[in-house]
Prior knowledge:
ATP binds at residues 194, 322. Keywords: ATP-binding, Cell membrane, Disulfide bond, Glycoprotein, Ion channel, Ion transport, Ligand-gated ion channel, Membrane, Nucleotide-binding, Receptor, Transmembrane, Transmembrane helix, Transport. One of its GO terms (cellular component) is postsynapse. Homotrimer and heterotrimer; functional P2XRs are organized as homomeric and heteromeric trimers. Homotrimer. Forms heterotrimer with P2RX1. Forms heterotrimer with P2RX6. Forms heterotrimer with P2RX3. It is elongated, with a radius of gyration of 44 Å. It is an alpha+beta fold and 415 residues long. Strands 1, 5, 7, 8, 9, 10, 11, 15, 16, 17 and 18 form an eleven-stranded mixed beta sheet that branches. Strands 2, 6, 12, 13 and 14 form a five-stranded antiparallel beta sheet that branches. Mean pLDDT is 85; it is low at 398-415. It starts with a helix and ends in a 10-residue tail after the last helix. The chain has helices at 2-23, 37-61, 93-96, 177-180, 219-228, 244-250, 255-261, 341-354, 357-370, 375-380, 395-405, and strands at 66-69, 73-81, 84-86, 89-91, 97-98, 101-102, 105-124, 133-134, 152-159, 166-174, 182-183, 194-203, 208-211, 241-243, 263-274, 284-290, 303-312, 315-339. Helices cover 30% and strands 33% of the residues.
Amino acid sequence: MCELFHKFMMGLRDFIKDYFLGFWDYETPKVLVVKNKTLGVIYRGVQFLVITYFIWYVFISQKAYQESETRPESSVYTLMKGTAVHGDDILDTVEYARPSEGGDVISTILRREVTYDQKQGTCAEHFMVANANCTRDSDCVQGEVDFDGHGRRTGRCVQYYNHTFKTCEIQTWCPIEKFAVVKEPALVEAINFTVFIRNSIHFPRFKVLRGNIRNALNKRDIKKYLNKCHYDEEEAPYCPNFRLGYIAAQAREDFGELCKTGGVIGVFINWKCNLDLDPSNCKPTYSFRRLDLRKDQDSSGYYYRFAKYYSREGVESRTLIKAYGIRLDVIVHGHAGKFSPIPTIISTVTAMTSVGICTIICDWIMLTFIDKDEVYSDRKFDEVIREPTVPKVPQFDFIHNYGLNHSDLSDGVPL
Length: 415
């Protein structure tokens, strides 16, 4: 056992010694010209791919020679415009826009469900609420609040409005919404409503400020332009007026379906600016996408409730409105780049270094698949070891010493 342990320790010592001594060895490439067309084609092909990648993608597409800024300062102002006829009423922005003017979020009402003349009192709970159906008062627990219901139970079992069955009585705003709601037709004129979106963006690193509204010499020209124009990517890229129908179409949504369930649409403003050119070439591009989940019908869409309060005969009353609509979330992305020597040097050195991968790949192919007889490997790898020098004895001294140390067998023999 001791002998095995001793051999193990000796082997470990030799390994550590060899590793330590080999760590200080210096390796230098050896130039070896291989006359093999297959390997030459692979070598030049890999070189072409690497150089093409860096020239086309890194330098031209990604502009790796530029210093960039991706977190600009941005401000958004939105305003809904349009008038609609709803029955005998004329609706303006105060009626259907929330808020009528605001920041990066604005919504418009497309359809309403209204519950009129609600008052604080007691009435029957809706029969679809869990444990709301009853036959006697003992089936209803006084003071119990069901969070899926409409109010607090009084402990009485009452007739469900004009029906023959009974439900538990609750204290709430009566009549309840699910029983007395009136569904109004959709506001189809909203397809022609326009949303004014003003966006300013600032790149503090480069001290560049840009806006999405066309510059003009005087305010009168700007006002005339904004009152008439509608955004078009080719004809009017600096017009900030967008029709709701255009936004829905660009988001690949049917406006009629949006009127039924509502929806949330993202308005993405993208600024990609090459500041090596004149800043006037820095223009915004717009894209639109549905943000809420459409597959889950229970939670999809967009709606909210609000109430209009009033007093009738000294009793506080309200009209409850459940509004379905389109909510627009304006999201701004910005990226600006300008030439800088530091990223240019880094990218150039990286490209030159990456070309060396061609040699590694071809060496691997040569030594693994082509060098079956180890002809290339014998020439590829050499080990140079400096051996101790042995002093050379001059030929004359050797003869002289030989004569001193050895007897001459020809002594006394005549020549």
